Prior knowledge:
The protein is mainly α. The chain has one domain. It has five helices and no strands. Helix 3 runs antiparallel to helix 4.
Amino acid sequence: MLKNTLQQAEPMPSYLWYIPKRLGLNEVLDSAADLVFTAAANLLTPPDEDKMLPLMKKYGKALTYLRRAIEDPADSMSVDTLAAVALLASWEVSGARLAISLPKFAN
């Protein structure tokens, strides 16, 4: 029985596939996506200290919206808030790469 179930199971797509159609509906997800997409675009170009300040401002904005969402009982349980947390976590992990490429901001 388990063998038949596993043969019929299909992997679910990543939550990332659902984000584009949710953009523009919720500021917590919008601000997290803006930060991550900007950071990803910046990684494709040579390191530059001037890129860090706008990223940190976007990070602060995303955290502000996330805090508000978490404080709201309904928003705190929403799929948009969960996706925003996942996006922010991915940026925080990649922040180490930015710190290595921009040593002035690592201190």
